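Worked example 2:
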Amino acid sequence: MLLGAHVSISGTIDKAVDRARELGCTTFQIFTRNPRGWKAKKLSNREIEEFRKKMKEFNYSIAVSHMPYLPNISSPIQGTFKKSVSSLIQELERSGELGLKYLVVHIGSHLGKGLEAGIKKAAEAVNTALSKVDNNVIVLLENMAGQRNSVGSRFEDIRRILNMIEYPDRIGVCVDTCHAFAAGYDFRTREAIENTLRDFDEIIGLKLLKVVHINDSKGDLGSHLDRHEHIGMGKIGENGFRELFHNPHIRDLPLILETPVDSRGNFATNLAKCKELYL
């Protein structure tokens, strides 16, 4: 079972591996730098060595990095787009240095310029970054919740981006269950999950599904509300996640929590709930 959470890199980046191990994670996700800024200090050889040493020591074969919050690879604003591509290049390089297998990227927003424009910009950003960085890191496009002007909430839109990518071996998809549910893809029953995954397979291809962000949803089906909830406490519910974890297409993938930390629970309680539902 590859089950984990998004852990902090506070202090030094190798401490993320310690935090994942303390939680009992068998995989994990990180930001490689402060996610709320554009600039990042270059990783030192010592930081890279310590991170990689702990990954090996604690037997983490797969870990995931996530793009920071500010980049928008679908942006029609040239200055923002240029900085977003630079950030994507940088994150690809950093992920490779740390030995991370996947880099998850929010597809972003077209800011009112239309879905077609956003899809083209997203593909351009990924192609540019992959052309500049020659390593083994696979870029994973993350589905959106369908907020206003968002790009990539429908499987068909993600497929259109994938069709434009010039490096097919270096691209895949990360499905966020909260985002998908908010966009109208049901996960509440076995039949609903089978229907959703059949649609995914017919449009995108299950072979391209590499990571699942497992988050319950505060919003109803098709609400377009990007609000994560504790596992079993949201609109997807315990039965939905039990069925999801027992689906043969999902069960063996890296499953990453991005659930809230509040008075009702934290990553430890959500991991425990997932293990209970997985068995």
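The chain has one domain: 3-278. The first strand starts at residue 3 and ends at 5.
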